[in-house]
Structures are given as C-alpha cells and as structure tokens.
Design a protein that fits this description.
39% of the residues are buried. The protein is an alpha/beta fold. Helices cover 42% and strands 12% of the residues.
C-alpha cells in the first residue's frame, strides 16, 4: 500500500502495481502545507479522493476519514463514510482507533462499506498520547495494541494498519489476527507495508525531517529541480523553444501576413 493525494501521484502508483492506494490525511502536510493532519476537513479529503480515483484502474482505493468527521457518533461516521465513497469515488475508508470505535466500525461495515482499521500510533490523537511516540513498548502497551487490533477485526475491518509499534510486537499481533496487517514503522513481520509516497520518493527539499521508518527510494525533488533549472536557463538564453518545438506556416502565407501588417501600419 502507498499513499497518493492527486491524479499524478495515483497514476504512477497504479501503474507501478500497488495493491492498495490510500488517500491518507497526511496530504494535509504533503499536499496542502498544513502543520498536521488535524487541520484537513472532510470536503478537502473528498476532493483529493475524487482526483485519485480518476487515475486508479487496478488498485483498491481507500480514503481516510479526517479528524472531526467520525468521532461524535457512529451515525456521523457512517454519513462521512458514505460521502467519501459516493462523492470521493473510493472503494473503502480508513479510520483511526481501537476498542472505543467498535460501534462505529460495525455501523459502517453493516452499510456495506469496507473499513481499514488503524491502531498503535494514531496521529489524529497525537496530543492525547503525548505526541508521535512508539506504542506497545511495555507489556501493557503491547496488550493494548493487540486488544485494539482484535477489536477492529471483530467489528468487521478487512485489514488493520499498525503504526509505530515494535517489530516483535507487530509480528506477534499479526499472527493472532485473521485479517492482514499493514505496517508503518512496525517491522517486516506485518502482512504488508505502507509509506507516504512523497516521503519514499524523495519529493521534498534537502534537510526535511523524515521518520525513522522511512526508506527513501528516489529523489524526485532533485530530478524536478534539475529539469526546472534547465528549463529556466534555456528560456533565458533562448535555447528553448527550437524549431522542433514550434508550428510551421507556409512561406507564402507568412509573406502575405507581413504585407497585411505593413499595410495596416502604413
């Protein structure tokens, strides 16, 4: 699984053979320049989901329910989920939380909407859990991760994201579940993995902070800078465009046009 936030990022992810494309609320930072995921609203998520869905032909698409769109009551969550699927044109939704959101997950899945769970570190609740901290580092913490994962499985989730959990804990949780686990900062014992596309492709300026679990597989920023700087240079030096990049006009038509201009300016 990989994230995408617009038509181009979804297009390349789909062509690369991704099984699942997630329109994650991380787009708040990587696409909209916000401080964290708590700022993005449902209408913005729907817009980005729609863009991603237009580009995706093979992958299963999932849209995040943003903070504030599902916590009040299961009925609110179902209404938001229906909008993300119906208006955003994705095939499933993801929401953060464990045992406390069992009624919500049950409500959505009973309506026929696939739900991807998310336990461990839940970024939307970063202020309540002391920031972006690894979860499950103690026996009690590990039991909480397992109980949450089992709960969302029983509620009907088709898979669950395990975020920022020790690899050994994530592997044991995976073995106890019947549904797949998708790890992000949770080791290779999970059933699958997810990364933010902007992070793993290197589409950011040098010096930007990256979480420990991110492996940078490319340097899109450097390639884009190289291309744009070359374009700027060639435009200023008039190397671009060349005749190969322009449309011709028959010589006689050009001569006639020049005569018309001379006559009008005379």
């Amino acid at each position: 699984m990989i994230t995408a936030h617009d038509f181009p990022s979804a297009h390349v992810a789909d062509h690369a053979g991704m099984d699942i494309i997630l329109v994650g609320d991380s787009l708040a930072m990587v696409a909209l320049g916000m401080e964290d995921t708590s700022e993005v609203v449902l209408e913005e998520m729907i817009l980005h989901c729609r863009s991603v869905a237009r580009a995706t032909k093979a992958a299963f698409t999932v849209g995040d329910l943003p903070m504030g769109s599902y916590e009040i009551a299961p009925e609110q969550a179902l209404e938001s989920a229906i909008r993300v699927v119906k208006e955003g044109r994705v095939q499933g939704i993801k929401l953060e939380g464990g045992i406390e959101f069992v009624p919500t997950i049950e409500k959505i899945t009973r309506a026929g909407i696939p739900v991807l769970g998310h336990v461990g570190l839940t970024p939307q609740r970063q202020h309540a859990i002391g920031g972006f901290r690894v979860q499950g580092k103690t026996t009690a913490g590990a039991i909480k991760v397992l109980e949450d994962a089992l709960a969302v499985q029983a509620a009907g989730c088709f898979a669950v994201v395990l975020e920022a959990v020790p690899a050994e804990v994530a592997a044991l949780v995976t073995k106890k579940l019947k549904i797949p686990t998708i790890g992000i900062g949770a080791g290779n014992g999970c059933s699958g993995q997810v990364l933010v596309q902007v992070d793993m492709s290197g589409n950011f300026p040098p010096g930007r902070f990256l979480p420990k679990f991110v492996k940078q597989y490319g340097n899109v920023w450097a390639e884009s800078m190289k291309a744009i700087e070359a374009y700027r240079s060639e435009v200023k030096s008039r190397q671009y465009p060349t005749p190969a990049h322009t449309y011709p006009i028959p010589q006689e038509e050009l001569l006639e046009f020049e005569k018309v201009i001379e006559a009008r300016l005379a």
